[in-house]
From TrEMBL:
Keyword Metal-binding: no
Top-rank taxon: Bacteria
Start and end residues of each Sigma factor regulator N-terminal domain: 27-113
Descriptive protein name: Anti sigma factor C-terminal domain-containing protein
Pfam family, one: Sigma_reg_C
Coiled coil: none
Alphabetized UniProt keyword annotations: Membrane, Transmembrane, Transmembrane helix
Limits of the Sigma factor regulator C-terminal domain: 170-318
Bilayer-crossing regions: 36-61
Taxonomic classification: Bacteria, Bacillati, Bacillota, Bacilli, Lactobacillales
Amino acid sequence: MDSYDKLINDAKKETLEPKNGVRNVKKAITSSKWRMVLMTITVALLIVPTCYMMTFFYYAFGTKSTTLMDITSHTLYITEPNTTLEELEFDMDFSLFSMDLGFQQYKQIGGEVYPAKTYDLKFVLNDLVNKEIDSKLEKVYPKNPTQTNQWLVHPNNQMEFFSEREWRVLSGLPDETVVEAYLSLSKLYSVDEVEKAMNNVDVTWAAIYTGVEDDLISANGELVSPIGYPVQPDNTYWSPFRGSRSHEETFLDMLKGLVPYEPIAEEISPHKNLELPERINYIENNGFQTYGVVVTGPKNEIEALQGSDMIRAMKVGEVKLWNWNR
C-alpha cells in the first residue's frame, strides 16, 4: 500500500469511529433504561403482594380484626340505648394497610327487632379514618348527648324537653301501636326494682350511674356521655351478653376491656369522652344503680306508667304497628 492509500484509510477510520462510539453509547443508554423499567416493574410486582401479606398478618396476628370488631360491638352496646348487632351481618374487606368493616344495627320495638342503622367504618392499621352511618330511624338519639339534649336525665339534672308534651304525644297514638320509650327515673334504683315495677313492658336498656351523671362532667372537667347495658337476655351469637349470668358483671368486664382502646371506642361511638377508668372505679366502689331506662311495649301499657312515682319524665322513641304477642 502506497502512502496515498494509507492516508485515505486513516481518514476513513477517523470518520467512522466517532459514529460507532456514539451509536454504542446510545445503545447502552437504551439498554439501561429498559433494565431500569423492568427492575421497577419487578419490584412493584413483589411489593404489592408483600404489602397485602403484611396487611393480612397485621390484622390476623397483630391488631386482630376480631379485636376491632369486639371494640366496635362493645362500644355500641354500652353507648347506644336499646340496640343489638348480628355477627353474620359483619362484612370485612382488606386493602393495603386498611380494613373496611360494615354491619347493621338493630332496635327492639314492641315484640320485634328492626334495622336501626348501617355502619361503614374504615381502619388504616389501628386508626379509624372514616365513619359513615345511615340511619333508618324516625327519631334519632342525640349524636353527642350533653346537659341540654339528654333523653335519659339524672334526677338532679335539669330536663331540657317537655315531658308533659311527650305524654300527650303518646296518648295520641293509636291503641294498635307498640312504642319505644325513654324513662327518666325520680331517683336511683336497681335494675331489678325497675323490672319488677314495669312487668307489663320490656325493659331493654338501663343507663348506669357512674358518679358523673349529675352534671355529665368528669373529675377532669370533661363532658361525658351516658353509658349502660341491655337488660333483656340476648342470645344472638355476636352479643357479649349471650349466656351471661350477670349483665352487670359482663358490662363491667366490657368497660375494663375497652380501657386500652378508649381512643378507638370514642371514635367509633357518637358519644365522646367516655372517661372509663374514673367510672369503673365508681361502679366497683358503689355498685350498680340506674337513673333511666328504655322500655318497649304496647302504647297503652307504657301510658299506664305515667302515674308511677318511679318515673320523673318520658320521651317517645320509635313507634311501630302492633306486633306484641304477650
